Amino acid sequence: MKAIDFATRLMRACLNNPTSLMENAVLFAIAAGLDHKDDIARELRHSPGAVSTCLHRLAKGNYIECTTWHEDGSPLYRLTTGSKAYLTHFFNFKQH
């Protein structure tokens, strides 16, 4: 598979799911090891407020959970078991 094929199929998967593009980006950021809203916001180049709102929606939907608290009092997140399975289907591309 060429890189452009992979990118196109991944974007199609991101667009055709119940979670929004922003939620998908945040889930991928958490899967990559980012757990603090400011780190996620910096990496995605979105405002901390928008990321915080997204994190709350994802937590309410049981995609992520708070594992502990940062020294500044903000929650640190990780993927739930269900969201790990959810993210794997983004990479199950069907060949035509």
Provide key terms for this protein.
single chain, 96 residues, two-stranded antiparallel ribbon, 5 helices, 55% helix
Tell me what the structure shows.
The protein is mainly alpha-helical and 96 residues long. Helices cover 55% and strands 11% of the residues. The protein is built from five helices and two strands; from the N terminus they run ααααββα. It has helices spanning 3-15, 21-31, 37-44, 48-60, 81-88, and strands at residues 64-69, 75-79. Strands 1-2 form a two-stranded antiparallel ribbon. Strand 1 and strand 2 (75-79) form a beta hairpin. Helix 2 (21-31) crosses helix 4 (48-60). The longest helix has 13 residues, at 3-15. The protein is globular and about 45 Å long. The two termini are 12 Å apart.
Helix content: 55-70%
* Biggest sheet statistics: 2 strands, antiparallel
Report the order of strands and helices.
HHHHEEH
Structural class comes to mainly alpha
Strand count = 2
Order of strands across the widest beta sheet? 1-2
Fraction of residues in β-strands: 5-15%
Q: Low-confidence parts lasting 5 or more residues at pLDDT below 50?
A: none
Beginning-to-end CA distance, first to last residue:
12 Å
What's the overall average pLDDT, rounded?
Answer: 90
Based on CA atoms alone, the radius of gyration comes out at 14 Å
Number of helices: 5
C-alpha geometry: globular
